Amino acid sequence: MGESVLTAGFGRVDGTLHCDGVPLDALAARVGTPSYVYSAQSIREQYARLSEAFAGAPHRLHYSVKANSSLAILALLRELGAGVDIVSGGELFRALRAGYSGSGIVFSGVGKAEAEIEEALRADVLLINVESEEELRLVNEVAGRMKLRARIALRINPEVTVDTPHPYTRTGEKGMKFGIPHDEAVRVASIALGLGHVLLAGIDMHVGSQIALFGPYEMGLQRLLALLEQMRAAGASDIRYIDIGGGLAVTYDTERPIDVTQFGVRTAAMLAGTGLELIVEPGRFIVGNAGVLLTKVLYRKRSGGKEYVIIDAGMNDLLRPSHYNAYHRIEPVTPVGGRIVADVVGPVCESGDFFALNREIDDVSAGDILAVHSAGAYGFVMASQYNSRPKAAEVMVDGDRFGVVTERESYDDLIKGEHVIPRWSAL
Fold first, then answer.
1. Which domain holds residue 18?
2. Could you point out which of 21, 252, 331, 346 has its C-alpha 20 to 30 Å from the C-alpha of 418?
3. Given 1, 6, 349, 426, the catalytic residue
4. Residue 221 contacts residue 264 (beta carbons within 8 Å)
5. What is the tally of helices (H) and strands (E) in the chain?
6. Which of 239, 255, 284 lies at the terminal end of a domain, its last residue?
7. 52 CB neighbour count, 10 Å cutoff
8. Is residue 34 located within the same domain as residue 44?
9. What is the enclosing helix (H) or strand (E) of 43?
């Protein structure tokens, strides 16, 4: 009789990898591969950790939907008390479908279309995070046309240099596309105060992703608070929210995990006496380590003195290794013994279709099931149908039960909305 799984997430029982109380070999046999598998309890525990860490300050946790937009995950987090941070009209649609009200939604993003602004105002979102003067004027125009007053926050580029694992995850450095340049922030705030259909209710920043130290947040927050004083001196008396974004680091390999308790204590100390309500936008921190991608070994191959493990998941299923050169731990669900050094690659017709290069792994064979760890964030949500490959299934595990929350696509899904013969029109 094996030991039972007592903690959330992924661990072994009698040698077999489990998600909570569900053995992943049996799950793969039932739902097929490739499949994403998420631990509901792991998500609950991460949310609780963060909520407790910021208990010393009035705060709101708005989950960053772009990390993983599964309706089941959104609904789970809503039950826990989360709001959401969205970056598109489609994410707004998902949030509303998952049961969120407008007051639980913050709308970020550098390129909101006019139709998306209308949708956000119709939903009465808590804040539209404005990222440029032109966007500010468009929000005012759209709100005026709708006879509304839009609550906005100004997303300011804090111009803080951060050390992140990849240049694509740096968003708060000078010259980035995100946010209002630091030296223009007070001027844009003054413009907002003179517009009749916007209410300047917050200021916002996002310094980057996978940040394990408080220093970059501290520097950015200091810069925001200094700007806030200038804005208040200019008459911005309605600012009540300060949004510090997300980007809290999780571990994929040997990275240093962030001390969220100290993060919360130090943030609360900096905001004491300001009268501001803190907004934090965690994404990866909540779901990153709560998911794995299950995939089956199709073939073993040797070429040019190299070993290859060819699996049925591809870069269309999990883009991070190819796009970010990201590390994901890979292990067989059932140990097989022996070790090899191999490239773990997918079936997509691209040399960049890989999950690991020159990686020491178990000596697996065709038919073995592998778990690609830390795939809960920026996994399925970045998937495509490249090479006309149907998207994988998504599965939620809660204790000793599981449920498919996104059905595996069929070939018919690949051509949905397409026409063999164009529906010709003339202008």
1. 10-39+288-414
2. 346
3. 349
4. no
5. 12, 20
6. 284
7. 12
8. no
9. helix 40-53
